[in-house]
Design brief:
Blueprint: H1 2-6, H2 14-50, H3 53-56
């Protein structure tokens, strides 16, 4: 009875199996894309840190603020 309630009555449905395979492949594709984007973002952040305006300011020769 429990199997009937869960939808397992005639064995595995081929459409459901193909949909599950398709979704698993989609998850793998998205995980790969996420890893690629994180790597790219880390590389861009490293370049941005090197060229930051704050690092180019010489704090020893700053001008006084106007009052």
């Amino acid at each position: 009875m429990a199997k009937a309630l869960l939808g397992y009555v005639g064995g595995p449905d081929p459409r459901m199996l193909s949909e599950m395979r398709r979704l698993q492949q989609r998850v793998q594709d998205l995980e790969a894309e996420l890893l690629r984007l994180r790597t790219e973002n880390d590389a861009l952040a490293a370049v941005a840190d090197e060229h930051s305006l704050l690092t180019s300011i010489d704090m020893d020769h700053r001008e006084p603020a106007l009052t």
